[in-house]
Amino acid sequence: MKLTRGESAFATTNYIVLTLLTLVIVLPFWYVITVSITPYSEFSAKDGMVLFPTSFSFEYYTYLLKKGSLIYHAYGNTIRNTVAGVLLALFLTTTVAYALAEKRLPGRKGIILIFVFTMLFKGGMIPTYITIQQLGLLNTNYVLILVMAFSAFNMIIMKSFFESIPESLRESASLDGASEFRILRQIILPLSMPAIASVGLLYMVVYWNDFFSAMLYVSDWNKAPVQLVLRSIIASSSLPPELLETAGRTPPPTVGIQMAAIVIVALPMLIIYPLIQRYFDQGMMVGSVKG
Amino acid sequence: MELATPGTSAGETTGKTTGKTERTRLKAGPRFRRIWKFKLLYVLLLPALLWVLVFDYLPLYGVSIAFMDYNVIQGFSGSHWAGLKHFRALFESEMFVHAFKNTLLISLYKMISGFIAPILLALALNEIRTRWFKKTLQTAVYLPRFVSWVVYGGIITLLLSPETGIINKVIGWFGGTPAYLLVQPAYFRTILVVTDAMKEMGWAAIIYIAAIAGLNPEVYEAAVVDGATRFKRIVHVTLPGIASTIIVIFILRVGFVMSAGLDQVINLYNPMVFEVGDILDTYIYRIGIEQFNLSLAAAADVIKGVIGLALVLAANRIAKRIDPDSGIF
Q: What are the coiled-coil residue ranges (chain A) (predicted)?
């Protein structure tokens, strides 16, 4: 197909604008990484402009990740909460989305409304806090796994995907005598990998990146997720030694420590999402909420 | 809500009846037989229903503390009713009025940038014909969505810092005076809007990208045959094709107007910019959790929730008036 002159100008402008936009979005991350691996001598000599450092050092990382440090312990908490949380969330979401994808289910519309209502009106921060407190969940290891385990929005993404699977597939399987449970496990779930991977990633990011639920419900540093520790590392211009257990050592300069901590905390999600990206375009269809 | 009630009872009844004997099943009417046929599906509904009951519907009962002088030690039964006292106190509080106003303003600004930018981005990405280049751009613009606001806030603070920040270096090159932008009320809302768009626009575009991918290619081919230019194809084929998606997202966003970005603000604001940057959520957190004035904070929660619900219902109604098939419920 030949492009007219106007069209090729349009295409070129489009390429340039998008490339610039992408650089603006990505460069800050590049800068964080370079600051975290540049020795302080070079960082101060170049007055902070270290987009392309000439020397490297991992002293900030070895300092932060020393065994027994708070960030090390908190990392374990975050991994535990994320793994348990994503499994629970996928269980809750897949089961209900599968049931509601059956259009002949009596009472379906009303049940969908029960879930949609939770997206439109929430009790709010304080009433939820009181509820968690009355349930005796405050400051427990379970609270950060339980409170984020279901999102009606993700359920609707999953339901839309199930609805897009041809009904004839299920019908022929049930004519062959397969039980509803077997149909779900052996036919629907393998076909639904794009949606399960996408929604699983959405939940994973929520669990990994949560700091606010932890601020609300957890007051014990031993139960704190790594985001909360990072928050206090960033907030403090001088690092409290007890936070990092640095007995007997002068802590290295703050900026480098902060950036290294950011990299340590952000890296796992940044590695995982490109691996799952190929599922997004198929898995993220937002069908109609009303079904 | 009214419509939700019959659904609940239907679900509950089947939950109970599934245990009954074969004989009852044979006697039961056609409706019951229809329900029985789907018994396994009802069982699959139970875990998630239980979760929303505990974590979404139980807190609705906790809303009552907004009308009490709630005391943690005495609990619901021991605390006294206070009527609308806390609501009056809120509207007399300068802090609350600021937070309320800021919430609306910041949401409105974010609505303009954060709602339109992803649509434009999706349309622009769709015009990229080089596959590997498109994929690379997509991966890159999604990136900030996968870090927390603790991380992104830390990065922004570094970039804007007066000593080390790159932004200040650039201002210096152009002859400006470097300043700590994050503590200046004049810039704070702009920083919120710009950084929000930078972090979220890539990911927000994905829903439109998926919608565009689902459009019928034959319509495009027909448009090409009819001599439509690329731009005309975008305006007359792509945009109408994703209109329903745009409307759904718009309605959902309107429902979030009262949430102006808690995670972002709490990681970027400081007492110097409270007057322009404090939003309802950060206000509720400080009053309720830090100062432990639970009833006053819960009253602010109620105001936030009721207005949010009213807005989303109104947006849905307007969408339906324009196009009866649109709207999310």
A: none
DSSP state of A80: H
Q: What is the CA radius of gyration of chain B?
A: 26
φ/ψ of residue A229, rounded to 5: -65, -45
pLDDT for B152: 97
Instruction: Tokens for A7, please give them.
Output: 């069209």
Residue A128 confidence class, pLDDT cut points 50, 70, 90:
very high
Mean residue pLDDT of chain A comes to 86
**B30 pLDDT higher than 80:** no
pLDDT for A116 beyond 70? yes
Which of B8, B48, B146 is nearest residue A96 as measured by Cβ atoms? B48
In this predicted complex, what is the ipTM? 0.89
Least confident range from A211-220, B9-18, B310-319: namely B9-18
Packed helices A70-100 and A152-164: angle between N→C axes, nearest 10 degrees:
50
Pull the structure tokens for residue B21.
Answer: 């004997």
The answer for residues whose C-beta is within 8 angstroms of residue B195's C-beta and 6 or more apart is: B152, B156, B264, B268
Calpha distance A244→A16 (Å, rounded): 45
* A1, A125, A157, best to mutate vs chain B, most B CBs in 10 Å: A125
Measured distance CA(B44)–CA(A183) in Å, rounded: 14
Does B127 sit within 8 Å of A289, measured CB to CB?
A: no
3-state secondary structure of B81: strand
Helix axes A254-283, A193-209, angle to 10 degrees: 160
pLDDT tens-place string over residues A224-241? 999 999 998 888 654 444
What are the pLDDT digits (tens) for B106-130? 999 998 888 899 999 999 999 898 8
Helix (H) or strand (E) holding B1: none
Residue A238 near residue A35, CB atoms below 8 Å:
no
Q: Whole-angstrom Cα distance, residue A173 to residue B293?
A: 58
SS3 state of residue B80: strand
DSSP for residue B237: I
- Report residue B308 as tokens: 């949010």
Residues in chain B closer than 8 A to A14 (CB atoms): 124, 127-128
Q: Which of A87, A89, A75 is nearest to A266 (CA)?
A: A75
The whole-model pTM stands at 0.87
> Which range is least confidently modeled, B11-15, B39-43, B196-200?
B11-15
Structure-block tokens of residue A144:
């950060």
Helices (H) and strands (E) in chain A — how many of each? 16, 0
Closest residue of A to B33, CA-based?
A: A106
The chain-wide mean pLDDT, for chain B, equals 85
A136 φ/ψ sector (left φ>0, alpha ψ -120 to 50, else beta):
left
Contact: B305, A133; criterion CB under 8 Å: no
For an interface test with B, give the residue of A32, A33, A114 to mutate (most B CBs within 10 A).
Answer: A114
Which chain A positions have a beta carbon within 8 Å of B74's beta carbon?
Answer: none
Q: How far is B276 from chain A (nearest CA, A)?
A: 21
8 Å CB contact between A127 and A161: no
- Are A22 and B137 within 8 A, CB to CB? yes
For residue A44, the model assigns a pLDDT of 79
Residue numbers in B near A128 (CB within 8 A): 55, 59, 62
A134 to chain B nearest CA, in Å?
9
Decide if A201 contacts A232 (C-beta within 8 A).
no
